[in-house]
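Recap from last week: sequence in, structure out.
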Amino acid sequence: MKTWQRKLLCALAVVIGCGVTGYATKGFWLEQYKIYIWGSIEVAADKYGWHLPKSIDAVEVFTLSSKVDAANTNGFYGDYAEPYATLSHATLTGTNATRVIELWRSQMPGRNFQAMCFEPAYGLQFKQNGKIYFQTAVCWHCSGYTLPIYVFGIKHIVENGFDSKSKNGQQLLMTLESFLPLPPATETH
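Predicted structure tokens:
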């Protein structure tokens, strides 16, 4: 047997051995993948929540609706698979932006808070030097918000939960409503 044939045979044996081992341990690898995804969500929730940079200097607030023409974005390009139209928009800077940023940072995130409806009332863009650092769509009915995560370098948008019924969750909603009131309930839910 020639050297290249031996090398090819050894390589084939290694590939087959890895395939058999991988198949036999597929449950383990599936669990590792889930851990990686869930960990990515926790890291993103921390990065875009409690550890939102101090250099965020503006917040764009949008009222959203799935009941009107979704092509009307008015600047909120969305980050979710379903289209949501923008009904109104406000730009917050200075102490107004700081108030919303601090309330956002104070939210308690967690998948356990989230239900399933996800009809966001508000879209938020946190800006840093005029550029979007983070944007999210937020639903107080199901306690959900969108969050970007990167899995193997590819951006995905996932839903995460937050304690929308808590004092801080309700304070954030009231603060946003003071700057940009929600339309009548028949239009949003």
